[in-house]
Specification:
Helices cover 27% and strands 25% of the residues. It is built from four helices and six strands, in the order E-E-H-H-E-E-E-H-H-E. By secondary structure, the chain is of the alpha+beta class. The protein has one domain.
Length: 109
């Protein structure tokens, strides 16, 4: 079963720093089944994100890569996923990151 992993980055990324390694344990990630993310992909394209590095701004999740989601995109992300009851654990992770002013890291499938 394909899955996406989401975790809170305790340290903000910096310009030039790359995230290319799959390290869900480092960020205490939660896993979300791909079947729950797929229906939201189009809406998630509204999120201002970065793919692998702050040097690469993009819109939406890097489906098969690593996404860095900045604090200013978390309200929109919460708004998108609130309708999916199966994503309550992800919602709470986003809320915690928002409260603490942290970035979220996403490891795609």
């Amino acid at each position: 079963m394909a899955k996406h992993d989401f975790g809170i980055m305790q340290n903000a990324p910096s310009i030039g720093q790359r995230y290319d390694l799959y390290e869900p344990e480092k960020y205490e990630c939660i896993s979300v089944n791909d079947d729950h993310i797929l229906p939201l992909l189009e809406d998630l394209k509204q999120l201002k994100c970065y793919w692998h590095t702050l040097d690469r701004p993009e819109m939406g999740l890097a489906y098969c890569g690593i996404t860095i989601i900045p604090p200013d995109s978390l309200d929109k992300m919460m708004e998108i996923i609130i309708t999916e009851r199966r994503l309550s654990e992800l919602y709470y992770l986003i809320a915690k990151a928002k409260r603490d002013g942290k970035y979220i890291i996403h490891f795609g499938i």
